[in-house]
Design a protein that fits this description.
Elements lengths: L1 H16 L12 E2 L8 H8 L3 H15 L11 H14 L2 H6 L1 E2 L3 H17 L1 H4 L8 H12 L4 E11 L18 E8 L5 E9 L4 H6 L2 H7 L7 E3 L10 E2 L8 H27 L13 H20 L6 H4 L5 H15 L10 H17 L4
Parallel strand pairs: 3-6, 6-7
Antiparallel strand pairs: 1-2, 3-4, 4-5
Helix pairs in contact: 3-4, 4-6, 6-12, 11-14
Length: 371
Amino acid sequence: MADIDALILILARRNARHKPPRIQTKKRFRLHQNVQQLPDELLIERCRFDRDGINYLRGLLSDKLVNPYAHNHPLSVEAKICAALAYYTSNSFQTAVGNFVGVSQSTISHAVTHVTDALVELGEQFVKFPPPESHEQEKQQFWDIAGFPDVLGVVGCTHIAIRAPPGDPHTFLNHKSFHSLKVQITADINSTITSVVARFPGSSKDSFVWRKSPMAARCAAGYLGTGHLLGGPGYPLRPWLLTPVRQPATRAEELYNQALRKTLRRVAVTCRLLKKRFRCLDGARVLNCFPEKCGRIIIACCVLHNIAVARNVPLPPEEGAATQGPSREEEEVEEVEEEVGETEEEDTESPQCQLGWQKRQTVIQQHFEKL
């Protein structure tokens, strides 16, 4: 009996020597569903872009997202883009992970970072002020809103909620008692963002953000020519930046303020569309990153917003329906003005302020006293 057991052991060892080596398969990350097979309605709901839009982004970002030194079949370019879009749309890594199989939350986080950095690099290509040759067309389009002359854009600030940063959190606490970045944008008639600044804490004043912005320097250098921007009461009066009359004493000044307010509504609508398109910015959940990374995410969303506007990509029905109607726009204007919550003290001794006052008076006399 012992001889039989010994023979079995010898045969088992011999077979083990000749057993073919085990082939280890590498883990592949794949989309839970093929994007090319999903209907556009579902893609817009999940990613805010249709199939053609995602293909466009893939072609745009491919060179920046492909890592030639990566191993073990990392996420494809398309998967990285869809993961980032799912995060921007929901502000949840869990939602983004839910659209994938075999992908960890850390993998999605890295994908969001890579896509964000790639989009920020393209910021100057997609977030830019209209060139001088199109200024007359811009002026005419803004004139058609309320009869305000020579307007080339509108400027305003909004708050994007972030987590309390370590070290110096109180500077990010805004007047509405939550931590935020104060984001300044300029917008055109089509709700395209023409400039964005997203690096100052929520306690900053509008006038401070404006003075530190590249747009202010360009305006002071004469880039707007005879045109100007419109801003709210938190902005300084300048020849290139007209603001409301604080205490209108004549009917012409009241008409001026009404036209300015109606035209300025476009920046409020733009802020609202941006937040509706990318829910990570709407305050329902704070951006859970350090302020610098939050600023980069905001800029990335602005780039995507402009691409979506240029390609006429609609919002999902439940989102897009809420953007229609003058009553909702009025509510958004009030919300943005409430976010501003401040009034800039006019430095009447400043030569620039005096030139701004003279231009404002000229506009009132030439265009609103006749009405």
